[in-house]
Automatic annotation (TrEMBL):
It holds the Pfam family DSBA. InterPro entries: DSBA-like_thioredoxin_dom, GST_Kappa/NadH, HCCAis_GSTk, NahD-like, Thioredoxin-like_sf. The keyword Isomerase applies. Signal peptide: none annotated. GO terms for molecular function: isomerase activity. Belongs to the GST superfamily. NadH family. This is 2-hydroxychromene-2-carboxylate isomerase. It catalyses: 2-hydroxychromene-2-carboxylate = (3E)-4-(2-hydroxyphenyl)-2-oxobut-3-enoate. The lineage of its organism: Bacteria, Pseudomonadati, Pseudomonadota, Gammaproteobacteria, Pseudomonadales. Its EC number is 5.99.1.4. Keywords: Isomerase.
Length: 198
């Protein structure tokens, strides 16, 4: 059986963005596969009683500094989005729809959205801005909107979120190697160790 990392994520999490920038390299270096599992972080928070660290002022201030530290360590761009927190329901339905129906463009799709949110600081709750971001990346905004409104796509995202909850997920990013859960982009060294053991 091949080694796999299951990456449960929501675009609205800056730490999920940081993990996203590192996981492909970790998987390549350990001969592992990366499986993307879109989920709705708002649903996770609501069910578990968890909340964004930014909701606690002292923790939020610390988190901003810590994100910058990790971005420097990973040598990636990160600019905290002034429109945070972002309602990602439509976005994560779009992600799920593209994964289901345009899998060959899936990574390209999430890349353009992650960068729009966490590098370019775009407001992806604004339909005009989303249209601009998608058109610039060569996607058809109407096709993406149609996928977001597809009942099968909505059900898949709900199922993914329910699966995450059943497996003990309480936030993003959450990664599984086998049945072992690793929470947070600051635990990627443990993910690597788990892959090297398997």
């Amino acid at each position: 059986m091949s080694k796999t990392v299951e990456f449960f994520f929501d675009l609205g999490s800056p730490t999920a963005y940081l993990a996203y920038t590192q996981l492909p390299r970790i998987c390549a270096e350990t001969g592992s596969q990366l499986t993307y599992q879109p989920m709705l972080l708002g649903g996770i928070f609501k069910t578990t009683g968890n909340a964004s660290p930014i909701s606690i002022p002292a923790k939020g201030r610390y988190m901003l500094h810590d994100l910058a530290r990790f971005a420097r360590r990973y040598e990636v761009e990160l600019e905290f989005n002034p429109h945070f927190p972002i309602n990602t329901l439509l976005l994560m339905r779009a992600v799920t729809g593209v994964q289901m129906h345009l899998p060959e463009r899936f990574v390209e799709f999430i890349d353009c959205l992650f960068r729009a949110l966490w590098v370019e600081q775009r407001n992806l709750n604004d339909a005009v801005v989303i249209t601009q971001v998608l058109e610039r990346a060569g996607f058809d905004p109407q096709q993406v909107l149609d996928l977001s409104n597809d009942e099968e796509v909505k059900a898949r995202l709900k199922d993914n979120t329910d699966l995450a909850l059943k497996r003990g997920v309480f936030g993003a990013p959450s990664m599984f190697v086998g049945d072992e859960l690793f929470f947070g982009q600051d635990r990627l060294d443990f993910v690597r160790e788990a892959l090297e053991r398997h």
